[in-house]
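BUG: 3D viewer hangs when loading the predicted structure for this chain

Environment: internal workstation, default settings.
Expected: structure renders.
Actual: progress bar stalls at 90%.

Input used:
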Amino acid sequence: MPLQALLADVHSAWYADQTGQALEPRLVERARTSALGQRLLVRALPATFLDGLLAPRPGDRGHMATPRRWPPARVRALVRDLGVLAHAPLIRAEVRREPVRWLRATLGNSYLLALDKTVWDGRLDQATRARLSAEWEALLAEPGFLSDPALLGDLLDRQGRAELHAWASRRHRALADWAQLLHDNGPLRAAHLPEKAVLVVASHHENHDGD
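Structure tokens produced before the viewer hung:
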């Protein structure tokens, strides 16, 4: 049941009828359980995915190669680390005691990635630095940010998804499609990480034994 396994992880927001109206989640769940329903769900996805991840390949399991290599948990971990790296200039510059303690506790080992200048030196153009700084200060101004890791996670993941898509669209089309389908279909942000830095992080996660 390879197609069923793939469709089970696709965010329901991607499925739409011919008018562009999103399918009801209950209808999507029911369709995932039958071969006919699965074929209908594939047709309900944007056509752009049909020449990438879902493009016809020899054998009936070809489209599962990327999801098997990149299960959802691994993609989420990669997205988070790319978000951390994309915010490295802000994380490195943060010297206030409580935010630093919060970052270390919340990010765990990923905090070290942000500090590692051998992966990325953190150079930004003025406009990108200004945007990231404004968002960072807005985050730290949120009431109770120290007790809600989700606030930081949302900020990092939004940027991490953009970084992964910008890189994978050029280098690994199936992964770009798969990462998009795992999340909702909202607009992506502007990416700024250099290609080499993304490759280093992506290679680390791809070669990691765990999910």
